[in-house]
Design brief:
Number of domains: 2
Strand content: 5-15%
Radius of gyration: 18 Å
Number of helices: 8
Largest sheet: 3 strands, parallel
Strand order of the largest sheet: 3-4-5
CATH superfamily of the largest domain: HAD superfamily/HAD-like
Protein name: HAD-like protein
Structural class: mainly alpha
CATH architecture of the largest domain: 3-Layer(aba) Sandwich
Order of helices and strands: HHHHEHEHEEHEH
Number of strands: 5
């Protein structure tokens, strides 16, 4: 039985890996449901269907952090093309966007350099003029770092997350304390070219 959040997360990741091996290609909701069922089985605890549905909703539709919608809208209003780097299938992501009122120009699921370049090409954007922004540490970002500069928002990151970024060699092109600082930095750069 997991003793803390970290062990619970590790069990989730382990079960997710097993489910993906057994049933590749599941959509995010089905995958989460199978993982939770596997976890309950491993821990020897019952998982009523109603509880499972609420847990899948929590995993697949987490609320955005306060102010994110306003930040995204500000970037779009200033002329930026905002492309989401999603960690779920397109249908689940679109449902999440509708639920919380987000509108992105496009989204990328696999952050390989080729996929990134393909989407940037659709918008006729030179990778040097693009910026990947993350307010969390995601290993998903690592492959994309070879072609696109990355900004790391430190607000809300734990010391553990900052250390994990450094240990894994994730180096951001720009590190800022808040979304507002990032917005001001982007505006300053844009204004210097006008």
């Amino acid at each position: 039985m997991p003793r803390d959040d970290q062990e619970l997360l590790e069990l989730y990741m382990h079960c997710e890996g097993l489910v993906l091996l057994e049933k590749p290609g599941l959509d995010s909701r089905s995958l989460s449901k199978k993982v939770l069922e596997r976890m309950a089985q491993v821990m020897g605890v019952p998982l009523p269907e109603s509880v499972c549905v609420r847990m899948v909703d929590a995993i697949c539709s987490p609320p955005p952090r306060d102010g994110l919608l306003e930040d995204i809208n500000s970037l779009r209003q200033s002329g930026c093309s905002v492309i989401a780097l999603r960690n779920m299938d397109a249908e689940t992501f679109e449902t999440w966007c509708r639920r919380y009122g987000f509108a992105f120009c496009d989204s990328i699921c696999q952050s390989t350099p080729d996929t990134c370049l393909e989407v940037l090409g659709k918008f006729k954007v030179n990778p040097a003029n693009a910026l990947v922004v993350s307010s969390r540490f995601y290993r998903d970002l690592e492959p994309i770092l070879s072609v696109v500069p990355t900004a790391q928002i430190f607000e809300g990151m734990t010391e553990h997350q900052r250390d994990a970024s450094a240990i894994n060699g994730v180096r951001c092109s720009l590190g800022v304390d808040s979304w507002k600082d990032l917005y001001n930095s982007v505006q300053s750069v844009r204004n210097s070219f006008m």
